[in-house]
Amino acid sequence: MDINDKLDRVVQRHAELRDSLNRPDLPRDEFTKASKEFSSLTEIVGAVETYRHVGAELADLQSLIEDADTDSEMKAIAEDEIRVLKDSLGKLEHVIMVLLLPKDEADARSAILEIRAGTGGEEAALFGANLYRMYQRYAEGRGWKFEPISVSDTGIGGIKEAIVNVNGRDVFARLKFESGVHRVQRVPETENQGRVHTSAATIAVLPEAEEVDIQIDTKDLRIDVYRAQGAGGQHVNKTESAVRITHLPTNIVVTCQDDKSQHKNRATAMKVLRARLYEAQREQLDSERSASRKSQVGSGDRSERIRTYNFPQGRVTDHRINLTLYKLDRVMDGELDELVDALIADDQATRLAEAV
Q1: For residue 187, which of 60, 151, 157, 289 sits 20 to 30 Å off, Cα-Cα?
Q2: CB 297 within 8 A of CB 343
Q3: pLDDT(320) > 60
């Protein structure tokens, strides 16, 4: 299909949806569905209108130059404007091509962020706490809500495991490439001889799932309740408020004990379980669709080392796109946009190349 035909169809569909949304008799569920689609097409329609407007201006200037009655001074001005408009047209064309790429339906969703200390003992747990703070600061900077679901700390500043609900617009789109193994190289505070140690933490980012996405049969669940415990094993409370849910078909286990209410802990654990089942379903579909495809930004496999934070040299390196930034302190303070934008751009470039 010619690109202009494709753009015509997008503009036409946008107009049809606008008319549908103005219908007073449109059922609520259809209104919600149409509203989402209309919103997703609005940006590309705006880009198409600008693209065609610039194209029309370019054609008018070209006609002016070809007109025998146009004097040389006017032609020179027109040629300068043509160069500027051609550059603008090329950029708009790239924007449109990116917007036409198939959307990941989960991109606009909130996400479940999981941080786990890996190899390296207490130093890995301390690094896990550093990553927790880094993502917390990043979320604050973007106006997202950073809501801890479960945090297992070491009692001396480290985090063995943390599960966080990050709520906001396009959270998953901007965090999904963070999944994988994050490696740190630095001198631990407990190291007397100043030797650099290497340790790691694992990050998993799961799109938040709704009940309509994943139907869970209660017969497939084993739910255990027990007394919540804190660092060192001391009891946080004397009631059985902590909840452990096991999904029997997949053997996925989720625990939650951070709230004093068993009911709230159960609801939170179910939210995490739905997210994990939804992600497993998405991964299966992705592998079925593209078994041979290996994206440059990585598969998201949690065993894959994706980034190294080198403290002695003050640098952070993302190995998937060979990007090194000498601003480690700022990155650890939550300034992740440069890394995130580069990963998104690389993913778009890869998909555009595959679409040709």
Answers
A1: 151
A2: yes
A3: yes
pLDDT tens track for 145-200: 999 988 888 888 899 999 999 999 899 999 999 999 999 999 887 676 778 889 99
C-alpha count within 13 angstroms, C-beta hemisphere, residue 233: 0
Torsion angles phi and psi, residue 159, rounded to 5: -125, 120
Which of 118-122, 136-140, 176-180 shows the lowest mean pLDDT across its residues? 118-122
- pLDDT given for residue 190 in this prediction: 66
Which residues, 6 or more positions from 275, have their beta carbon under 8 angstroms from its beta carbon?
111, 112, 206, 207, 208, 209
Angle at which helices 72-100 and 28-66 pack, to 10 degrees? 160
> DSSP secondary structure string, 295-319?
-TT----TTSEEEEEETTTTEEEET
Of 270, 132, 252, 146, which Cα lies nearest the Cα of 201? 132
Residue 132: its pLDDT value, please? 97
Tell me, letter by letter, the H, E, C secondary structure of 99-118.
Answer: HHCCCCCCCCCCEEEEEEEC
DSSP-derived 3-state class of residue 253: strand
Q: How far apart are CA 346 and CA 351, in angstroms?
A: 9
Query: Among 297, 337, 300, which residue's Cα sits nearest to residue 319?
Result: 297
Paired with 221 in beta bridges are 247
Distances from the Cα of 134 to the Cα of 5, 127, 188, 294, angstroms: 45, 10, 19, 28
| pLDDT tens track for 193-217 | 778 889 999 999 999 887 667 888 8
| Pairing mode, strands 180-186 and 252-256 | unpaired
CB–CB of 247/220 below 8 Å? yes
Q: What is the pLDDT of residues 273-296, one digit of tens each?
A: 999 998 888 877 766 544 433 443
Helix axes 72-100, 337-355, angle to 10 degrees: 90
C-beta of residue 319 within 8 angstroms of C-beta of residue 332: no
pTM greater than the 0.85 cutoff: no
Angle at CA of residue 268, ends 262 and 272, nearest 5°: 140
Question: What are the DSSP E strand ranges found in 208-347?
Answer: 221-226, 242-247, 252-256, 305-310, 315-318, 323-325
